[in-house]
Amino acid sequence: xxxxxxxxxxxxxxxxxxxxxxxxxxxxxxxxxxxxxxxxxxxxxxxxxxxxxxxxxxxxxxxxxxxxxxxxxxxxxxxxxxxxxxxxxxxxxxxxxxxxxxxxxxxxxxxxxxxxxxxxxxxxxxxxxxxxxxxxxxxxxxxxxxxxxxxxxxxxxxxxxxxxxxxxxxxxxxxxxxxxxxxxxxxxxxxxxxxxxxxxxxxxxxxxxxxxxxxxxxxxxxxxxxxxxxxxxxxxxxxxxxxxxxxxxxxxxxxxxxxxxxxxxxxxxxxxxxxxxxxxxxxxxxxxxxxxxxxxxxxxxxxxxxxxxxxxxxxxxxxxxxxxxxxxxxxxxxxxxxxxxxxxxxxxxxxxxxxxxxxxxxxxxxxxxxxxxxxxxxxxxxxxxxxxxxxxxxxxxxxxxxxxxxxxxxxxxxxxxxxxxxxxxxxxxxxxxxxxxxxxxxxxxxxxxxxxxxxxxxxxxxxxxxxxxxxxxxxxxxxxxxxxxxxxxxxxxxxxxxxxxxxxxxxxxxxxxxxxxxxxxxxxxxxxxxxxxxxxxxxxxxxxxxxxxxxxxxxxxxxxxxxxxxxxxxxxxxxxxxxxxxxxxxxxxxxxxxxxxxxxxxxxxxxxxxxxxxxxxxxxxxxxxxxxxxxxxxxxxxxxxxxxxxxxxxxxxxxxxxxxxxxxxxxxxxxxxxxxxxxxxxxxxxxxxxxxxxxxxxxxxxxxxxxxxxxxxxxxxxxxxxxxxxxxxxxxxxxxxxxxxxxxxxxxxxxxxxxxxxxxxxxxxxxxxxxxxxxxxxxxxxxxxxxxxxxxxxxxxxxx
Length: 800
What we know:
- This protein is of the alpha/beta class.
- The chain has six domains: 1-143, Roll (Archaeosine Trna-guanine Transglycosylase, Chain: A, domain 4), CATH 2.30.130.40; 146-271, Methane Monooxygenase Hydroxylase, Chain G, domain 1; 274-326, no CATH class; 339-516, P-loop containing nucleotide triphosphate hydrolases (Rossmann fold), CATH 3.40.50; 522-605, Helicase, Ruva Protein, domain 3; 613-796, Ribosomal Protein S5, domain 2 (2-Layer Sandwich), CATH 3.30.230.
- The protein is 42% helix and 17% strand.
- The chain has a five-stranded mixed barrel with strand order 1-3-4-5-6.
- The N and C termini lie far apart (151 Å).
């Protein structure tokens, strides 16, 4: 018999049936079937007509039935067992429909078992069981196949069954590929259905239903459904198998490449990056990572392990991980809440500045009571040299925090704040994170120096980037482009410093708690010089062991004759010059006097640079003295006016801004409309030109505060009445004749005091600003508070 063979026992029926080359036994003699048929129960399978199966028979009853049948007519009834777990089936355990089979061959095995090869011949139904011992015998009736001739629908079913079965064979690695060839060569539709049904992995009841179905087309339709289910299952299994295989292949490939890379590294001179990676992993175990940072670090380490140190991207990944390790994640210094100690530190480091010290102590008090508080964003605004930056260091010392300073002057690239993306060559984190990395604390006192001098160009606007940094509601999730993570800046105490508040963008200014720092008075400068500047310069010049003193009078002379500033930087330089002169004499062996004299100061510094004599001389009609505010402090301003023959034109010179020019026009219009009450001939406005000039033409000047000075100078020129000597003024004017308040009062008053002015005219609403100044610093000054222009003229102009 030319056959294809794959055999199993009767207990395990996963098999490929034997297929005879002649389908359904065509051409063979008609089988002689006995009237009483011996039954062979099978577990886990259903035999279909035409299909050949190898069966290993193990049960005693089954062996006796097979032997008796083989000795006689070789015919036996094969039925499926309903429950495969039953070892000794009864009549109730047998299905009613089975297949009459011919025992083709019986083989005795060495172990005593029996193997038979059977071929299904016809379907039958059991009428009754005749005997149960020594094996089942039954009467039966043959079942006929119901099939129409030339059934085109059946042909379509058969074609589809072949296609589906072929696909299942291709997707099932357990079925030999030769089965596909056999399948294509089967032409008999009934046998094709039986062959495919026999090979289904479907449940026993589904196969039994196929066997019991008499109509061939119905059987084919049912088989189609079962095949489609099996195809879906095969596709799913294949997909899972392929995915698992791909994953395994990828892992094996990576392992193989890793081993190769390790060998290459050893040949090139050892595992140079293994030590670095181990050190990084050791450091990472000590970090209090947020979950996102931990995940990003792990990915970076995995990437680094796969790279050779000589590759360009190695340093990029390494530097990024190094930054993550250096940053203080949830690492903070402990604040000191000792308010008395903090006040003592602030007082020792800085003289004056009571308002700022009060604000810092308030902040500490809240921290002490509440334990946690979003850090405010303070902004110290004031002229240069008054100690804004050094005050930040004192605050850090007072509360026990680390100190960090970030200079923003001239900063023009947004990436300096937010960091560069890693794709760029030379990329690095923003200066905010770099500074925190340097101090190794998540809650330092950070000085943002010169925040008003931040620039912007085509590379972005750093001031806009600072909006996120300086907003307590947002800086808890500050995103740095290089770090590629959010970092918490909410615990940082930011302190910004600026000279000109108007130069700070409005949106940024809105986030700052602005504290104005005015310039120092002469008395304050004397104290600062004695407490801080002179000891510092003595030490810097090696004069600590030399005994000499500076009297208050000598310090005042240096301040008045050699400095014009709100702060103390120039004073510090002048004191340094005096110390150098003294150090030279000591080095030459010249004995120093116990006290530094005026003559000694003059020898070291030369002639006086500044003099108040110009303010003491009497001025001609048309000249008035005003008070101005600049970013370096207060200053004295002369406004000169003169008349000449002409047609009533107004000429303005002295590098004036638009607001100042408008003040002059407003003053002239007021005089023209009130000429009669001021005893001015109206014709003079048509017959004379007026020229207003503000000296120091190289210096730009602008602002409304020179309005009353303009009015006084013009009135003096038109009336010929001189302005009272030692008198200065400041205030804005209106066409209705009112005087409005202006800013920078303390700086202006201190400038007037330095210049020897004795009387000051200003708006009545500025009286509150005068009250904020220490009375000792303005002793000797007389203030005239006015509401209208007439009051200004009555106070300032002398009678004819």
